[in-house]
């Protein structure tokens, strides 16, 4: 007798409760898809990934505590056997490039039709990659000049943290933090850390 394929087991990580509920309901309408868990932040997603061992993680980028990109990077480092699909409002090449570097298999925008997401999950499960073509072109048109450490420090500075505070949090010297900020400002060709933060956010590099 032919074996009956089990539904794909999906974990959803999305900080907007209404959207999280809608995604869960829509995907559960598909006979071959099953949402086994849904959470509202990255750290909860990490715990549930290890507890539930889903086939696919559907995640947003911006979430409290741990972003979708940081979550994908952590999954990659720990070599968890789960494919990652990002569903976001951020149609920026910089985000896509970082997502691909983190091993993400799919990158879709939230205004895409629901059936497109379901089809993307099936394709990703079978080893495919689902990326918006125009976004993919944009991702390689302007490379990200920032290092991972410069990005981390610039993000904290843009959120209002002082160089002293950043140094304490990251266990670096005050001078080292100032050097990283200076390097980032120089690479982006702007006048100060706030302008650097805004430009990097606009490009999707943060």
From TrEMBL:
Write down which residues bear the modification named 4-aspartylphosphate: 60
GO:BP terms for this protein? phosphorelay signal transduction system; regulation of DNA-templated transcription
**Protein name, entry field:** DNA-binding response regulator
Q: What PANTHER family does the record point to?
A: TRANSCRIPTIONAL REGULATORY PROTEIN DESR, TWO-COMPONENT RESPONSE REGULATOR
Domain (Response regulatory) spans 9-125
Name the species this protein comes from. Answer: Luteimonas chenhongjianii
Q: Name one GO molecular function term.
A: DNA binding
Signal peptide annotation? none
